[in-house]
Amino acid sequence: MIYKFYSPVAAVIDYTGNDRLEYAAYFDYDPADICEEGEAENFDYLLGEDILQFAEDINRAIQQDWNEIKAKSGFMEFFLWDSRQAQTEVFEKVESAFPKIEIVNDIAYAVTECSIRANLTIGEVETLKDYFSGQYSDGWGESFEQHAIKTKWGALYVCFWPEGFMMETEEEFQTRIDKEGQSAMREPVEEEKNISALVEEEKNMSAYVEKIREELHETVDREIDGFLLRLENGELLESKSGLEREIPLSAMPAYFKGKKPVAVLYPDGTEAAAPTWKKAAVHLLQHCAEDPEMLERLKEMQGKVFGRNRLLFGSDGNGMDSPLEFYPGMFLESKFDTETLLKVITKRIFDAVGYDYSGIRLRVADPAPGFRMEKTPEEPEESEMGENEMREKGIRKEENGEGFSLTM
Fold first, then answer.
1. Which CATH architecture has domain 241-365?
2. Count of beta carbons in the 10 Å neighbourhood of residue 294
3. pTM of the predicted structure, to 2 decimals
4. Helices (runs of H) and strands (runs of E) counted in the chain
């Protein structure tokens, strides 16, 4: 019989192909310490909905990792340790347990798939939840997130112990997402009661689409005129990362994913260099705060903008994972992927204070295509791994020399 446990998963994609770091480095260190000298920040934080296209790569890497560990029963190979030595009944019921990535409703989840010989009691299920959670936090999962997975988009670092971690049985998981789906379906039904509101919403949407059309036309005309001028002068505006272009800040935030920022362009013709998305965020928020009226409105909003589990905008960095001070006494949570960061700035802050950003544009560059991550000459082959490399891999040799176990 198969018994599954579901939990969230997150990742970082490094578009430069840097495979010498680990997942935590992108949160614990300043981008300047991560990037090579002279390079700009060029990576994104990914959540379950962003990891879909990497599922096969991740599962392939997981399979390879367990082949190297040579543990036929997966996590259960190391179950009877320390305080669990007496829990032989659980051990005898679970033949094997391996992690994998599974897609449910267009979201990637970590799944611990168990092959069981007999039904589990409630207490045994809780014991396994605790054990598998420990493997993800500081056992196999801690080791796995320290090694990059090579993909065609860049170096991928996958975390099985992300913020907001929880573990559910398949039944608990299915019940929760069914309830969430029913809740989402009820909203349109309630809105249908107010026909005039729907009509007004449709008008607003039409106006918004027309605005996007106008901005896109302006952008296309401007880009073509600029390209022809540079072509005529014998020079094309090209950066180390790719061809540059200008996109209105009012465009959909998803347009900016995978792009490298270059500068922020304001309606009065001034521009501010922004080699990273965090620097772009600082420039945008500073420009807003320099308006006395906007500054007062921002002060009123401090401490009132929240995400799912944390404060996003406040007077200090308390309650934030990666606080970014953009103005004296004003902090923004910056631990987001590019799309979410821009969405928080424009939709949650600028729109709320009435700041007009329709004339602001961002100059961005596409990452250079076709980069490849080659194996470094000094990287040891599997047969050449010494004890130090094994320790970094999350494996330790037992004192009696009779095999290997995952570090707990």
1. Up-down Bundle (1.20)
2. 18
3. 0.47
4. 13, 18
